[in-house]
Structures are given as C-alpha cells and as structure tokens.
Queue: 2 jobs
Job 1
Amino acid sequence: MRRVVVTGLGAVTPCGVTAPSAWQTALSGRSAIQKITRFDCAELPVQIAGEVPEFGATELLGAKVARQTSRFVQFSAVAANEALQDAHYDSQSMGDDCGCLIGVAIGGLGEIEESACLLKERGASRISPLMLPYAIPNMASGFVAIEHRLRGPNFAIATACASGTHAIGEAARLIRDGETKMMLAGGAEAAICPLSIASFAKMRALSRRNDEPHLASRPFDRNRDGFVMGEGCGLLVLEEYEQAVKRGANIYAELVGYGLSADAHHITMPGPEGEGLARSIRGALASGQINPADVDYINAHGTSTPNNDSLETQAIQSVFGVSADNVSISSTKGVTGHCLGAAGGIEALFTVLAIKHDVVPPTANLDTPDPACPLDYTPNTARERNIKLALSNSSGFGGQNACLAFKKLA
C-alpha cells in the first residue's frame, strides 16, 4: 500500500493568518474570540465570534482576485499559497497527478444573504453575475486548482463540521489507491453573518457570554454554554511517501489511519454514548494497525457544547478503556472557536504540529472540569510530551463522524 505523508501546511485562522502564528497562539491558550466587527450585531442575541483579524484580501491576493471571490475562497487561496510554498511546490511542477480537495460546510452564506436583501430592496438588476460563484462550496477547491494548475482530482466535500477531516481522509485514499501522487486537502469556511448567528442562536447552540468573549469557548468545562462560531482555512499538502523522499521534502508526519461513520440518529444531536464517533475512531485505528494504548494525543472535536463534550468523552472511553487515562487530549476550539467546515483542516494541522514539536496544545478556559468529562484534557497550559501517534476527531450535523491518525516518522 502506498504511504501518505504531510509535506506542507497552510492556515488562515482567528488566532493567526499563517500556520506558525496560529500554532503559537494555540500553544499560548489565548482565546481569539472577540465581539463581531464585520457587521452590526447590536440586535442579535449573540454578538461574539472567532473572526479572522485584519485579513486584507486585496493586499494578499490582488484587487482582481479579491473582487471575483468570496471570503471562504480567499481564505483557501491564501492558505494554499502558504502550504504549497512550505512544501516547495510551484505551478510549473504541477500536473495531472496533483489534485485539490477542500471541504466546506456552508460556503458563501454571507454573500447569499447580502444578495437576497439586495434583490428585495433594489431589484434583479443589482445582483452580481458572480453571486453563484461566490456561494457554491466547491469554488474553494476549483479556484485553488485554477491558480496552481492542479489538474488531478478536484472536488468538495460537505459533511457539516466534519468536512475538512473527510476531505483529508479521502485525499489520502486517492493517493493510496494510485489515483494521484499529491493532494492539497483540508477545510475552509467563512459563514459568520447575521443569518448564521441568528439561526444557531435560535437553536440555543451558541454561547451567550457577550460580555466575556475571551471566556466563551470553554470545551469540557462544567460552565460551558455553547460553541462560538469561527472561520478560516487549514490545508495540508499530502503526497506519496516515495515521491516526497525522492524530492527531498520536509516530512511533518505520516497519515496512517482514517475512519468514518454515521450516527444515523438525529439531524443535530450526536448519537447516544458517542457510539458513532467511537466507530470512526476504531476505524482509524484499524486502518492504521494501531494499538489504542500507543496513542499519545487526541485533538478532540470538543465544541464547548454540553452534549458534544460529554458524548465525545464517552466515545474515547469506549475505544480506549483503561488506556484513556494515559492519553493527552485537548480541544483547540477554546482558542479558535468552532470553524465549522474549516475545523477539521485547522485541527489536523495542529495535530501534525503537535507531533512535529512534541507538545500538546492546551484546552483554553478549562477552569472547572466537568465531572462528566474526567479525562486529561490539558487545561490552559501546553505540555511537552513525546508524541509518536495522534488522532484528530470531527463530527457534524447529520451525524457524520471522521477521525484521522497521524504518526511520527521513525
């Protein structure tokens, strides 16, 4: 079986607009959640989010690209530039065996909302001819492929908040099956807009700590009251091991396992006892021929919602048994918020860097551990640990689950 390794990283996140800067903030445990600045939120019940700060699309991509693309595509373009440069790829070296797979949960919801208001208020003649390209989720992978001449497999996965993780797992499968030699894969999202905030707030899914935004996202804490919306993009360059060695690439880690499952239970609630996620984790371990006792770190889905965090704890306990107490676990959503379709890409990137640097990023704001979440969730302070094997978990509305297993190269 062909081996798959990670040779490049790119990130646009609320806690940093490069992979190194995002990683350093994640290690610090400083929350990037603030009051919403991109639109007037005074009439909304929730007024906080993990916005990407000071993102200048025109400066980063040029005026023409900024004008022709929506925010989630812009995030993808910037992260792709960084990841491919990090992997020492350029457009001249791309071919039919290089592809792109970016998961997006929602797409250009903000642009759809603005266009709908414009249509109602000023008529059809005012709608941009680019409205549909602004909105459709596959435009992230499509635009990146155009920019970098990635002529291999190219598509988008939309599995809610598991989109980025599924994208990485399926990209790795394409390489293992010999369909391609290199894939740029991960997740992107930019859905912070009045409509999404109002909708999630109506579901009672969001934290309402409007006066304490930096304390709002608190995975596994007894006083958590919901997730905080984030945005961004996390991309990994995956390639076949022999090719990476041949061209002298810097290898961060090997992707050795991938598991996926469905709860088949409820459109928004996780399955009972985290059973679906547990099957996904078992699948990743089985495909990578991994003994649960050998796992050193898990980047948890850890959304900061009461149900998710307790059920994910049950899933981990179910899979690992007595070994669960020996695994270091954390949720970096305490820093970034929940970046929806981008979450899996960003968190896979953090997992790879945890392996590379032998350090466990902390769970921010974990001040009062929940008795229903009794595992080692690395509260507030990063911890050095030799990390040879690590997992990254994701779940999404509709009951989709995914898990990736990464390994340090000997």
Note: The mean pLDDT is 96.
Job 2
Amino acid sequence: MALAQYKYKDDIHRCFRCGYCKFPGDWSDVTNCPAYARFRMESYSTGGRLWLIRAWVNGELQWSEHLGRIVYACAACNNCVEKCPLSFSDDIVQMVVAAKNEMVELGLLPTPVKTYLQNVQLHGNPYGLAAKRRGEWMADLAVAPYDDQEFLLFVGSEGAYDSRAQQAARALALTLQAAGLSFGVLGKEETDDGNEVELLGEDGLAEMVAQQNIQTFQKKGVRKIVTFSPHAYNAFKAIYPKYGGRFEVWHYTQLLAQLMRKGAIKPAGAEAAKITFHDPCFLGRWHNEYKAPRQVLQAIPGVQLVEMARNKKSALCCGGGAGNAVIDLLGGSPDSPARIRAREAAATGAAVLAVACPNCLTMLEDAVKVEGLEDRLAVRDIAELIRP
C-alpha cells in the first residue's frame, strides 16, 4: 500500500542516482558518504537510499528490518546536501527523515532505534541512565546552578553521562571559570536536547523534549546558551524556534575564540606541536562554522595546525550523527567512517587529533584504539587542549 502522507512523494523521484552525493569537494574519493564508505553498496548511498524509500512509499517494496537499517544508517552529515547539483538538494536529508517519520508512525523500527527513543522518553537520555545522575560530571567542581547568569552552559546527554565526554565537559567548565565568564548549569534539571530524536523521525517526542527545555529556559530567564555539543547547538538554533524557543546560542568554540581575542583566556603551550582537526558535521556543514575551532587551536602557543586531506565542507563524518553514536549501525569494520577518519588523521603526522564534539570524541578515540594508533595519535577535545 502506498504511503500517501509521505511529505516528499512528489519530489523524491527527481533523484536519478548520479552519484555526486558520495564525493568530497575535490572529487578525490567516492566514499564521503559515511554509510556508503562503511558498506560500499549502492543501497547505502544517498541515491540508493532515496530510491528504496521511493519504492517503499509507492508500495513496491515491503518494510523489513534490513530496509530500516539502511534508512537509519544515514548519519545526517549533510555531505549529500553540499554535493548534490540539483535544485532539491536542501531537502535530501529531510527526505530521509520524513521516511523515518513514517516508520515511527507505523511502529516499524530497527530495535536499536526503538531502544534509543524509549530511553529518551523514559529517562531523558539515550543511554537509559537515571536522571539523578545527570549532575555527576561536575560532582567536585564549584559550578553554580543557573540563576540569572549571563550564559547557561548546556552540557547535554553526552557530557553528562559518557565517561570520556565528561572529562571534556569538566575541562570546558574549568576554562570558562578561569576566564571569569558568568555562567551556570541546570544540573539535574537538564534533559536531552532532542536533536537526534528529531533526526530519528520521532516528531512527537522531539516536540515534547523541546517544549520541556524551552519551558525550563524561559522559567529561569535564560537568554544566552553556550552548548558543549554541536548537536545541541543545532537543536537550539534550528529546531526550537519552530516551537517558540528563541535564544542567543553559541557553540563553545565560538565563545572561546571571542574570549581569547579579548585576552580572557591565555592558553599554555601545546600538548603537542602538530595538531589536526576533525570538523563536526553539525557545526560545519549544518551551520558553516569552520573558523572558530581553528582560531582557538591556532592561538595555542607552539601549535602547528595540519589539515587532513578531507576537511571543512569535505570532512568525512565520524558516523556518530542521527543517533549512530549510540545505535551504532555503521561500526564493526575497518571501513567504519570513524576508523577511516582515524587513519586519515594519523597520515598527517599529527600527534593530536582535536575535536569539538562529544560524539566525535568518543567515536574517534575508540577508532584510534581499534586501529592500534594510541602510541602515535591522541584524541583531545579542544576544551581539554586549552584547559588552564
């Protein structure tokens, strides 16, 4: 049976699988789509995925767990949006999200996706951990609860619960304190930002999460938000306004760059002289912010910033977006995008792979370990590199 309610049913046929969506900007590699890089099958490329969705929407193909995994393997990295030469390019990721909307409505979800969404609904985070543990990351830090300070520091589920991301969140809080910034945190009152929930197709839950956060922010008089994660940055800038939540939103690297220009932060010498940087998709391709992280890194005395062959708009996604850092539909192979990216970073000769996203931090550090590169390449969040 055809799905008449599918939003893009009159446009999706316009994709004729030309293949441009697989490439980086210099046309050097056909594997810039993370799912295609992992599986090397046309069905996992953007064009192949859209054709499968079209067949399913038109009733020519029955849903299966395998089809669900192909659709949900899209990490929403926006490389296809950057590379597609056709007029509907801005809608490509949304065409996939709309298919996920239909799968949610019909209750047709791969098991890891269902678990992710249930955990957010029941516990306020994708890990299924107790809400009372959300403040553990700052247990011995003198971080003030938000009470009309200039900024709310939104740590997010990754910084609150993931053990590796917690270290970077602590470093960020200490750096902001040392800079004399007026900020507070929500602690146990914080909940998931809902960015991945929206991209996983659960509109109702995404709206509920957004409304809950907006109500909390407005009740406390929040005006400015600095986010630890680019995913939260995207949620607050691009998703929350449609529910009435309009705030001044900064990613932490943007704020650090400004504080460094003012002299409020004076980093010590570099942990290692040669550093390469991995662009997070939700800061770069989604919001065109490539300068701020590099400005922060280049302001560290002794740093030599070396770029990977694929960088900025052409950076290969680590594969953690759209919930894949948790549901992990792209792992388990030397061709997983995170492992490819770790090898690319090592090839620069850098001693440090710098990141500005908690998902990238955990994904790439795990990849470096599996690749046996730990003695050559350390993965560090930018907040850790400038911590006083």
Note: The longest strand covers residues 151-154.
